[in-house]
Amino acid sequence: MTGTDTVAAIRAAVAGATPDIRAGLPGRREQAGTENPSGERRLAADEYADELLAERLGAVDGVGTYASEEREAVVDTGEGYAVAVDPLDGSSNLKPNNVMGTIVGVYDADLPASGRDLVAAGYVLYGPITTMAFAHEGSVTEYLIENGEPTVLNGDVTLPDDPTVYGFGGRVPDWPADVAAYVDEVESALKLRYGGAMIGDVNQVLTYGGVFAYPALQSAPEGKLRLQFECNPVGYVIECAGGRSSDGSGSVLDVDPTALHQRTPVYLGNEGLIDRLEAALD
Ligand code: FDP
Ligand code: ZN
């Protein structure tokens, strides 16, 4: 198998798992009674999606490592790429029946790896319909997924030139003053759209243009979102779609990987908005 074949097989495996992930949600909205490696309480649905994806992705020829936000350590699955997965992003949205996602990063390196080692990345959005944005070889394709089968909706997704939305996580009083000042500045031109699931909020930015952030907080200087499983893969998608990612000072893809579950502040969106953000945080 070539690298491209493996990436296609990973994409197909993720798409193929989505009907099973969706079907498993209704009975798994309660707490599992356990915590993930980041100290967050897990839902039964988080564990279920993780087990399912470990099985499906671990079986793909050319996948050598499976890692997940829900597991302390990586799983050795053979020879090949390392896949890093957030099985159910935004799972606190399951109780109120709001959107959630699945994120996958395909690294050609041992984990924790740099975002520059990604060869592909993508995410599934479980909304009124199931869609997937998948970045490979510099471009982003959007798919509709029905019965686990992807069909192309847009073969070259790019951020619109005229951005209209923004969404920032964390409590406003917990934002550093420079983040609050930046939001004051952009909210005169952009509409607030925040749903509390990274993938839902980022996909609005990909669709309408704008800026998503889970910033550094006063109480948590590293923010909340995880580099390997969330920030790198989604930053890669946004950059391949012509946007920018940042940790506040430069591309998220350049953040030094130090630990599998490390967190980083993350800012994603149209180039001009991220340039202004970095200037504001200077
Ligand atoms: P969740 O805790 O529901 O899994 O993955 C972390 C995440 O969701 C992101 O999807 C989301 O952007 C963020 O946390 C939301 O955090 P807040 O509740 O602090 O806004
Ligand atoms: Zn997540």
Automatic annotation (TrEMBL):
<keyword id="KW-0963">Cytoplasm</keyword>
<dbReference type="GO" id="GO:0042132">
    <property type="term" value="F:fructose 1,6-bisphosphate 1-phosphatase activity"/>
</dbReference>
<dbReference type="GO" id="GO:0005986">
    <property type="term" value="P:sucrose biosynthetic process"/>
</dbReference>
<feature type="binding site">
    <location>
        <begin position="89"/>
        <end position="92"/>
    </location>
    <ligand>
        <name>substrate</name>
    </ligand>
</feature>
<protein>
    <recommendedName>
        <fullName>Fructose-1,6-bisphosphatase class 1</fullName>
        <ecNumber>3.1.3.11</ecNumber>
    </recommendedName>
</protein>
<dbReference type="InterPro" id="IPR044015">
    <property type="entry name" value="FBPase_C_dom"/>
</dbReference>
<comment type="pathway">
    <text>Carbohydrate biosynthesis.</text>
</comment>
<feature type="binding site">
    <location>
        <position position="69"/>
    </location>
    <ligand>
        <name>Mg(2+) 1</name>
    </ligand>
</feature>
<dbReference type="GO" id="GO:0006002">
    <property type="term" value="P:fructose 6-phosphate metabolic process"/>
</dbReference>
<feature type="binding site">
    <location>
        <position position="194"/>
    </location>
    <ligand>
        <name>substrate</name>
    </ligand>
</feature>
<dbReference type="Pfam" id="PF00316">
    <property type="entry name" value="FBPase"/>
</dbReference>
<keyword id="KW-0119">Carbohydrate metabolism</keyword>
<dbReference type="InterPro" id="IPR028343">
    <property type="entry name" value="FBPtase"/>
</dbReference>
<feature type="binding site">
    <location>
        <position position="88"/>
    </location>
    <ligand>
        <name>Mg(2+) 1</name>
    </ligand>
</feature>
<dbReference type="GO" id="GO:0000287">
    <property type="term" value="F:magnesium ion binding"/>
</dbReference>
<dbReference type="InterPro" id="IPR033391">
    <property type="entry name" value="FBPase_N"/>
</dbReference>
<feature type="binding site">
    <location>
        <position position="86"/>
    </location>
    <ligand>
        <name>Mg(2+) 1</name>
    </ligand>
</feature>
<feature type="domain" description="Fructose-1-6-bisphosphatase class 1 C-terminal">
    <location>
        <begin position="159"/>
        <end position="281"/>
    </location>
</feature>
<feature type="binding site">
    <location>
        <position position="89"/>
    </location>
    <ligand>
        <name>Mg(2+) 2</name>
    </ligand>
</feature>
<keyword id="KW-0460">Magnesium</keyword>
<dbReference type="GO" id="GO:0006000">
    <property type="term" value="P:fructose metabolic process"/>
</dbReference>
<dbReference type="GO" id="GO:0030388">
    <property type="term" value="P:fructose 1,6-bisphosphate metabolic process"/>
</dbReference>
<feature type="compositionally biased region" description="Basic and acidic residues">
    <location>
        <begin position="27"/>
        <end position="40"/>
    </location>
</feature>
<keyword id="KW-0479">Metal-binding</keyword>
<dbReference type="GO" id="GO:0006094">
    <property type="term" value="P:gluconeogenesis"/>
</dbReference>
<keyword id="KW-0378">Hydrolase</keyword>
<feature type="binding site">
    <location>
        <position position="86"/>
    </location>
    <ligand>
        <name>Mg(2+) 2</name>
    </ligand>
</feature>
<feature type="region of interest" description="Disordered">
    <location>
        <begin position="21"/>
        <end position="40"/>
    </location>
</feature>
<dbReference type="Pfam" id="PF18913">
    <property type="entry name" value="FBPase_C"/>
</dbReference>
<comment type="subunit">
    <text>Homotetramer.</text>
</comment>
<dbReference type="InterPro" id="IPR000146">
    <property type="entry name" value="FBPase_class-1"/>
</dbReference>
<feature type="binding site">
    <location>
        <position position="230"/>
    </location>
    <ligand>
        <name>Mg(2+) 2</name>
    </ligand>
</feature>
<feature type="domain" description="Fructose-1-6-bisphosphatase class I N-terminal">
    <location>
        <begin position="23"/>
        <end position="147"/>
    </location>
</feature>
<feature type="binding site">
    <location>
        <position position="224"/>
    </location>
    <ligand>
        <name>substrate</name>
    </ligand>
</feature>
<dbReference type="GO" id="GO:0005737">
    <property type="term" value="C:cytoplasm"/>
</dbReference>
<comment type="similarity">
    <text>Belongs to the FBPase class 1 family.</text>
</comment>
